[in-house]
Amino acid sequence: MSYREPSLWDKAKMGLIMGGSVGACLGCLIGFYSTMKFGPGPRGYLGTIGQYALGSGASFGFFMMIGSCIRTDEDLSLGADDRAALRAQMNRYRWPGSAATQTTPVAFYFAKAAKTGSSSEK
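Below the sequence we write its predicted structure tokens.
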């Protein structure tokens, strides 16, 4: 049996359902607290709690759907020649002196200050 990765549409639906259910649960809690503190209003208890649940579920579900679409992993595996070309381009833009020694810019600064003999303590 072969495994097929879910499509973008499947991931969007999954994010919408998960976000909608979590948002609806939180909306019910917030709506229940609001109706107990401020009263039910003209819609009644169930209408007010349902309005909170639907509003919270829709907004959280929308953002979870967008987030799950953004986080989709594409099969972007690089070959050996692509990795070598990328490494060569990255080495071209390294900090001076760090290609061979792998020092950070801060360590490079302190090493240069130690060679010149300048220090902040006098």
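The helical segments are 8-38, 44-70, 80-92, 98-101, 105-116.
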